[in-house]
């Protein structure tokens, strides 16, 4: 590892740990250091970057080197290795594992950092300061790793054993009796902490607005990362013909061009080669294959968007097999329209590599999942809840203690037509039933705050002790048995997987369902909680949303059905619906 790469390694690991520091101003300064692309320099960044732009300074990197690091990270998608466990989780065992990892890595790597930096400084003709320079940065890395170990252990333990049960029992949209307030928090994987929910239409998390690129760029980064690793693995085993930028055929070499060639040069090279390799002019037995390769290379490089994708991720990104697999999974779980409400189900490491064909970091997965939650929230609000509220009779008083019974004929007619379309594809009925049941569990959680024995429909709120006892009873009586049952069925099925399982269509449908249903429920729980507990809502607005969500949940349960496993009868019906869906999708693309 060269001197600059090692110093980048130290810089990125230190800033990654500081990003998740519980002290706010340190976390903000670290994010500015890691993600800002403007010319402004934060206090933490000034500590690492040389003010005189000389390599002999005591700082970690110079201005020019910092710009190179940013360019590699943002333009070329070449990230440094972050080996320390930085992101707190809602798991005590992961916290212990992360703490042990950080402690061991710090003790092993810091002596290597000392030796490397000392030798690099000696090569810069600074023999007197070289030992102090290496000792300082190696010591800082060691101290950071040990701090990261303590931070992981303390935060994960606190989140898992203190914050999670505390917020679950005492979350409330009213802090004190007679005064409106908010004391309701949910876990946010982007910031790695509990935050107030955001249930406002078209609002995004602040970190997503300032520090992260679009979903397309994130997936392109992951595709290139995986393709590069696959290419490196192949190159390590044998020496053969060079591949493309990230694996596959090298289209530039096929056309005899350089990567910086112009569009005019691409057309000229294609016209020249096609005359040589065309089967009508070339008697070679592999002429047709050569002609296909030249034509394919020309179609990619002559298209600006395809060429950009090829330069980023090679042939894998151009063909985008991950998008085709994602479309197939969405079709299985109800199609694109239903997935706008329920979200995607492929955010595990296995799904990222096998279905998506990408290799994403934990932070990138959290960003994609958060954006998915926000899209699902907007879909639920805009096309279900707000539509229900709009059909509410004008001037009708809002009952806060019990379910409001009024006529919503226009909404019923609208939803009946909508649900019939939703339930015609794949496992849509099972998906609707699943998220409808999860909505009902969130509503029951919300209703534990209300004493429905008030006079004239007026809301009477339970005491905090009563709320906690009711939620504890509901959790151990209903929620926990349900989740354990889901987990047990998943594990039971996974233990029965054999080599021939992947040749059995019915078994593959069961595998897809049991490995995805928890993700569907998590999305529904997060979205419905945000909708009900948004701190900006007034009391009447909150109760109207509760009423609307209850109506939506009942409708989904009525039109849906519980998953009972795949069999021949259900498989025939499922395949017919998927075939019709694919034909409809193809028809829409052609139009």
TrEMBL record:
Taking every annotated instance into account, which residue ranges of this chain make up the domain J?
250-314
The residue range of the signal peptide is: none
Q: Which PROSITE patterns match?
A: DNAJ_2
UniProt xrefs under SMART domains: DnaJ
Transmembrane portions of the chain: 99-119, 131-149
Keywords associated with the record: Membrane, Transmembrane, Transmembrane helix
Asked if the keyword Transit peptide belongs to this entry, the reply reads no
Q: Give the protein's recorded name.
A: DnaJ domain/X-domain of DnaJ-containing, putative
Query: What's the domain of life for this entry?
Result: Eukaryota
User: InterPro entries, alphabetically?
Assistant: DnaJ_domain, DnaJ_X, EMIR, J_dom_sf
Q: Does the keyword Transmembrane apply?
A: yes
């Amino acid at each position: 590892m060269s001197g600059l790469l090692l110093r980048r390694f130290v810089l990125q690991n230190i800033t990654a740990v500081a990003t998740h520091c519980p002290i706010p101003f340190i976390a903000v300064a670290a994010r500015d250091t890691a993600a800002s692309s403007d010319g402004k320099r934060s206090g933490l960044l000034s500590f690492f970057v040389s003010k005189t732009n000389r390599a002999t300074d005591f700082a970690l990197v110079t201005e020019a080197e910092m710009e190179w690091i940013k360019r590699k990270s943002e333009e070329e998608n070449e990230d440094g290795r972050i080996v320390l466990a930085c992101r707190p989780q809602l798991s005590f065992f992961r916290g212990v594992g992360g703490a042990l990892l950080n402690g061991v890595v710090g003790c092993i790597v810091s002596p290597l950092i000392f030796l490397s930096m000392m030798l690099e400084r000696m090569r810069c003709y600074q023999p007197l300061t070289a030992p102090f320079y290496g000792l300082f940065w190696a010591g800082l890395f060691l101290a950071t790793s040990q701090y990261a170990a303590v931070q992981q252990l303390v935060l994960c333990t606190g989140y898992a054993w203190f914050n999670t049960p505390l917020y679950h029992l005492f979350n409330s949209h009213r802090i004190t009796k007679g005064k409106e307030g908010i004391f309701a928090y949910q876990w946010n994987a982007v910031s790695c902490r509990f935050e107030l929910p955001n249930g406002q239409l078209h609002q995004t998390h602040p970190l997503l607005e300032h520090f992260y690129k679009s979903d397309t760029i994130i997936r392109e980064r992951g595709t290139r990362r995986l393709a590069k690793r696959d290419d490196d693995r192949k190159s390590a085993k044998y020496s053969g013909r060079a591949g493309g930028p990230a694996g596959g055929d090298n289209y530039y070499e096929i056309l005899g061009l350089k990567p910086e060639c112009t569009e005019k040069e691409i057309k000229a090279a294609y016209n020249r080669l096609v005359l040589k390799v065309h089967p009508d002019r070339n008697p070679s037995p592999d002429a047709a294959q050569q002609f296909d390769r030249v034509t394919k290379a020309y179609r990619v490089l002559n298209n600006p968007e395809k060429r950009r994708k090829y330069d980023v991720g090679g042939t894998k990104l151009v063909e985008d097999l991950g998008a085709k697999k994602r479309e197939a999974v969405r079709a299985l779980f109800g199609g694109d329209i239903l997935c706008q409400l329920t979200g995607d189900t492929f955010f595990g490491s296995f799904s990222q590599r096998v279905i998506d064909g990408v290799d994403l970091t934990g932070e990138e997965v959290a960003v994609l999942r958060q954006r998915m939650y926000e899209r699902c929230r907007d879909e639920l609000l805009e096309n279900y809840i707000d539509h229900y509220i709009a059909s509410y009779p004008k001037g009708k008083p809002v009952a806060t203690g019990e379910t409001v019974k009024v006529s919503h004929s226009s909404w019923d007619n609208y939803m009946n037509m909508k649900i019939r379309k939703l339930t015609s594809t794949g496992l849509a009925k099972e998906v609707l039933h699943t998220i409808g049941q999860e909505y009902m569990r969130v509503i029951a959680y919300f209703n534990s705050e209300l004493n429905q024995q008030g006079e004239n429909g007026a809301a009477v709120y339970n005491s905090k002790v009563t709320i906690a006892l009711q939620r504890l009873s509901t959790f151990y009586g209903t929620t926990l048995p349900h989740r354990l049952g889901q987990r047990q069925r998943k594990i039971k099925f996974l233990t029965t997987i054999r080599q021939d399982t992947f040749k059995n269509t019915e078994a593959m449908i069961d595998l897809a369902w049991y490995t995805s249903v928890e993700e569907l429920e998590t999305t529904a729980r997060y979205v419905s909680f945000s909708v009900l507990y948004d701190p900006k809502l007034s009391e009447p607005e909150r109760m109207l949303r509760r009423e609307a969500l209850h109506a939506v949940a009942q409708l989904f349960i009525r039109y849906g059905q519980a998953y009972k496993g795949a069999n021949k009868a259900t498989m025939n019906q499922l395949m017919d619906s998927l075939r019709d869906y694919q034909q409809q999708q193809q028809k829409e693309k052609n139009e």
